[in-house]
Amino acid sequence: xxxxxxxxxxxxxxxxxxxxxxxxxxxxxxxxxxxxxxxxxxxxxxxxxxxxxxxxxxxxxxxxxxxxxxxxxxxxxxxxxxxxxxxxx
Amino acid sequence: xxxxxxxxxxxxxxxxxxxxxxxxxxxxxxxxxxxxxxxxxxxxxxxxxxxxxxxxxxxxxxxxxxxxxxxxxxxxxxxxxxxxxxxxxxxxxxxxxxxxxxxxxxxxxxxxxxxxxxxxxxxxxxxxxxxxxxxxxxxxxxxxxxxxxxxxxxxxxxxxxxxxxxxxxxxxxxxxxxxxxxxxxxxxxxxxxxxxxxxxxxxxxxxxxxxxxxxxxxxxxxxxxxxxxxxxxxxxxxxxxxxxxxxxxxxxxxxxxxxxxxxxxxxxxxxxxxxxxxxxxxxxxxxxxxxxxxxxxxxxxxxxxxxxxxxxxxxxxxxxxxxxxxxxxxxxxxxxxxxxxxxxxxxxxxxxxxxxxxxxxxxxxxxxxxxxxxxxxxxxxxxxxxxxxxxxxxxxxxxxxxxxxxxxxxxxxxxxxxxxxxxxxxxxxxxxxxxxxxxxxxxxxxxxxxxxxxxxxxxxxxxxxxxxxxxxxxxxxxxxxxxxxxxxxxxxxxxxxxxxxxxxxxxxxxxxxxxxxxxxxxxxxxxxxxxxxxxxxxxxxxxxxxxxxxxxxxxxxxxxxxxxxxxxxxxxxxxxxxxxxxxxxxxxxxxxxxxxxxxxxxxxxxxxxxxxxxxxxxxxxxxxxxxxxxxxxxxxxxxxxxxxxxxxxxxxxxxxxxxxxxxxxxxxxxxxxxxxxxxxxxxxxxxxxxxxxxxxxxxxxxxxxxxxxxxxxxxxxxxxxxxxxxxxxxxxxxxxxxxxxxxxxxxxxxxxxxxxxxxxxxxxxxxxxxxxxxxxxxxxxxxxxxxxxxxxxxxxxxxxxxxxxxxxxxxxxxxxxxxxxxxxxxxxxxxxxxxxxxxxxxxxxxxxxxxxxxxxxxxxxxxxxxxxxxxxxxxxxxxxxxxxxxxxxxxxxxxxxxxxxxxxxxxxxxxxxxxxxxxxxxxxxxxxxxxxxxxxxxxxxxxxxxxxxxxxxxxxxxxxxxxxxxxxxxxxxxxxxxxxxxxxxxxxxxxxxxxxxx
Lengths: 89, 998
Ligand SMILES: [Zn+2]
Hints:
The structure holds 2 protein chains of 2 kinds.
Chain A: E1 3-6, E2 10-13, E3 18-22, H1 36-43, E4 52-58, E5 66-72, E6 78-83
Antiparallel strand pairs in A: 1-2, 3-4, 4-5, 5-6
Chain B: E1 14-23, E2 26-32, H1 36-42, E3 49-50, E4 57-58, E5 71-76, E6 79-85, E7 95-99, H2 113-116, H3 125-129, H4 136-148, E8 163-175, H5 179-190, E9 195-198, E10 214-215, E11 218-219, H6 220-233, E12 237-240, E13 243-249, E14 253-259, E15 274-286, E16 290-292, E17 305-307, H7 308-318, E18 326-330, H8 334-344, E19 350-353, H9 361-368, E20 372-375, E21 377-383, E22 390-395, E23 407-410, E24 413-417, E25 420-422, H10 425-429, E26 433-437, E27 442-447, E28 452-454, H11 464-483, E29 494-495, E30 519-521, E31 526-527, H12 528-536, H13 542-549, H14 562-572, H15 577-580, H16 594-598, H17 615-620, E32 623-628, E33 631-637, H18 644-657, E34 660-663, E35 668-673, H19 677-684, E36 697-703, E37 709-719, E38 722-727, H20 732-746, E39 753-756, E40 761-767, H21 771-778, E41 794-799, E42 802-807, E43 816-822, H22 826-837, E44 843-844, H23 847-857, H24 895-898, E45 904-910, E46 922-924, E47 937-945, E48 950-957, E49 967-972, E50 977-984
Parallel strand pairs in B: 1-7, 8-9, 8-15, 9-12, 15-28, 17-24, 18-19, 18-24, 19-20, 34-44
Antiparallel strand pairs in B: 1-2, 3-4, 5-6, 5-7, 10-11, 10-29, 13-14, 14-15, 16-25, 21-22, 22-23, 26-27, 30-31, 32-33, 34-40, 35-38, 35-39, 36-37, 37-38, 40-43, 41-42, 42-43, 45-48, 45-50, 46-47, 46-49, 47-48, 49-50
Helix pairs in contact in B: 5-6, 5-11, 7-8, 8-9, 12-14, 18-23
Bound molecules: zinc ion.
Zinc ion binds next to loops of chain A.
């Protein structure tokens, strides 16, 4: 079970969190013309990465904040965690 | 019964306490401190089971966790448990156990015919034999395999034992209490670190209990006892015996199973049977020791053949002689240690050493005791069926290929030592890249992936002196990093006998003309010949060979078989062992009870149960409850002998004619507050929200980004910047997460806060033509007229001193209101409604009547919003704004969603107006069509329409828009029903919606 450093609460066990997918996906702006391809990329198309992956998690049984986690999908190593509005350098 | 093989003096058991037990129906005696295995051996019982495939007689091979044979069915306190190792099960008064894998009895086993048929049961026999003809599978092969397979029988009764889970955090977790575990624990504890020391056996000390060594001028055993006694007094140390760390998971999370009660005749009151510990450790020290490995020879599975270390342990710990004429077969000095122990107890062993000449202190001692030693000698085959009677032995050439003249010598047990295999399972589970250590012909941990270090024999270090030095150092350095204390510890002086180099010899060649079975995997009956076949048939990867032959796949995970299997593959393939590689070790290290894994989350406790504040009232008034997510809701209220159908019909009918009240507390409620609240709602819902006035409610539908309906409900504007959103009971948590996602990640600029208020409000829906009259009496000071509180209106009122929210919304399709009060007043509100409603013939109604009412009205719910439908499918396209953008809107342009013949909700009535249509039925054009019969749609919800007094269903039907009036068939193969039906509008009652506005 992963041990996740919530940037708001500190080290907590994985079972307090729920997974929210790829954090690099950006929702197209409202009221903007979007091509089918663009929209499909946003809704459906994901890379199944092996290695470093920036992903979203929500601390549902804690502070309820959505956070970003940089994690290795093969080794489960967690490199860094970020608040929702923190820039990932 | 006498314990004929128990020695007079010696052993760590308590001879003052005699215990009686039963094995296969026969009564025996043992002592407190025995295992079932040691007690049976004390009574001369060696035959304990039959092997898995060939049903060959099986005895004891080890003395602990490594035991591959002696798996029994245990009976304790009226319960039975399979897959128990007799070598681990501690004896208690009245213990009962039986052999497994044998029928009708262990002495006469019909399955043993497989032994004579073994030529037909080679490697991969499951794959090959049971393939053809196909029709034989269910009738013959499967029942046969089922009867033959398995290591016991699971109980079919409810398990009354209690199991607990415990979460723990520590600085150092130490697996194993042998010399390295004790030394590192002691050093770390002295530095003030929080230490957990886990030992799987009942006794602490590991190898120190049986080895002839001296530490700090005391025996190894006494030294271990002293350390444990001191550790137990330290507040920063947890010392646990009978506790097996079986799994090493990510981020240094380890799981340990503590046997709290297995050694007792019955579990003590308020105690669990087992306790599962989830331990998050900063550092893990693996001191799991090593397991002796066998040498492979003919009939090496005969009862009486066992590991030499096991024979020594039975003697030194339990005071039991495993034989009176022992033969020791060894390729290293460990065999001599066992021989010396025998000799000390007046038994004359014969030692066969595969080495031509070896010299060491240990061997000198054996020689001085006058032990008969034969160098360059091997056991070719054990003789005897249910017990070793003699051994065929021979000299062996230096290249280990040629056997000399075979000679038969009498013996009653054969104690084998093929050197030692470090127990690297935990390190391997943690992701450690293990490496092959040539000097010991075995794998040891290599590069650590997590914060883990392996010490002592588990790391391939077999010198006690070196083990203690490295372990004290590791314990002190790792703890120093954490606590910043540096208390020096004097390392005690060690006296141990030096041993000589072992022989890299592991398998005795077959003598000319003999075809003895030489077993590698004792639990799964995998012999040398099986691996040879697999390789001949082209299997190369060790992972494939493992699965094809089942080598190392039994419950013992190949603890005694893996390395010899690798040796064999590498010899045949002319490769070195490391390039063959070992198979992956996965948790659990030993079998773990399902009960321990489940813990307290059993039955009703598997999830929380939520009850509304009116629950007790419902119970008193004969409510029959149903699970709605985690909530318990009244399904109907039983009157007299009514069944579900009759009661729900009565309740629904009363809503249509008088007035009913329904507990709607379970609906999800979310407070949406902030200056941008309307903007958020406008983006989340498909319809327009910017112009909703204060004091008004609106029905809304929200989509996922893929255009599928996520949830629906009404949201009310309580004040300028305050909205009260309702969700379905099932989606409440998901909708909250959904809103938080958009507020925190996508549109953080919106100034809105959301919070769940589901449990803060109790809700009652009052529905029916007389509901307004009732409401007026409940709120005499409020204007609840059609003008004062119109449909979708909202007001606040005073319910006999309690502040209430009144919403004029309707799910039943009748004139209806929903009253909310703070949860603590829920019961007060409910009782007032019932009391005052009496004159209007009020009746409470449950979820079944609620469903009936909404179905015949054509209102959609979870069975239509099933994660596969868009607004159009539910006839909700009128709520989809064309002007503004919202979540999921772009997806609605997808061609499948705009297709002319898109599926859509319809009503379904059986032509006979009698037969209820099972939910889930498929709608087809032709009931006699060839299979697969094209499916046009499915029935999502069914009820008995109280308005029309006949069955009515909702369905999602292809091209539903143009299907009204069509005649189709509803087919339910599950219920074996074919019902001719007519498609009608989904609005079966009050299609214009006049009642809700009346
Ligand atoms: Zn948090």
